[in-house]
Amino acid sequence: MLTLTSRDKAYVRAVAHGGLHDMRKSIEYSGSGSAQLYLTDAHARYQLFGLNGRTKTQINRTWHDTSGNSHELQDLDHDLSASHKNFTGLNAFNFAKGVDTAGTKEYTKRYGDNVFLDSTKLGIRISMPQARYNADEQTMCRFLIFRSKDRQSHVPEKSHDHANPHYDLFLNSAGYEHGLNGYVDHNDSENYIKNTGPSNKTAFGVSALLLNKKKYIFMKDCSFSLGRDFGSLAFETHVRWDWNDQMLDIPAARDDITCADDSDDKNYSWYFLLIASNPIGGTATQTLHTEIYGTTAAKTMD
Known about the structure:
Blueprint: H1 6-16, E1 20-32, E2 35-36, E3 44-50, E4 56-59, E5 73-75, E6 87-89, E7 114-127, H2 130-134, E8 138-148, H3 165-168, E9 170-171, E10 177-178, E11 182-184, E12 192-194, H4 203-208, E13 210-211, E14 216-227, E15 234-249, E16 270-277, E17 289-301
Parallel strand pairs: 3-6
Antiparallel strand pairs: 1-17, 2-3, 3-16, 4-5, 7-15, 7-17, 8-14, 8-16, 9-10, 9-13, 11-12
């Protein structure tokens, strides 16, 4: 016998009587990133994106020194210098709650507290500016789509994972966790050591490192080259997530519909990372142009 929960029954009634309000969130980004890697020289850059806003990941470093052990979570790039910060939140789940006063409903807003998250689909294009392409410049790239294996949350008590790709996305040849801008002290799994200048690990070295599959789940791992010698001007890919979530009540003050009061353990914090470097150095700045377009579809019950 099939047993339905109260939310299952509410969803069936809403569908049967047409009581659901369809919502669509348009996702658009177009720009060039210029953040450096601490691990390399000035001819290497990276761009880091997230489906939602800036994820809280790292426990405050003072947790190790403060009596009482404060569990305050820090932003993904909270201790990096401005020239090395390059995170962009796509806000794929933001649906502000609207007031249905005129009897009409905007497709970009939610009008009920119960939200049913359907899917998110994106098209991503990474291109080399035409002037650089004609100038015989070359760029070697690695593109990753990933999330932490365990759930991350802006609420410390609900976060099961404190992984931070700036410090632990890869594994180096010695088995140490290594990231874009630092590494993890083996004596303490939460002691992130920030690099403050170039080391002997080049961008090519970072791009060739093994993935840290103990902490992260990877959807895509692509290597490609752009430039006239490589016969390519752009890289393009398409991704889709079928969430199929019947989510709990969303607080009226929160726009992010994944921030339910008692949300499940699904991890919505997917990241996109582009590492780009010039094999011959020269005067390259590696400001590749990235375009991301897509839609998140959801429903709310009136």
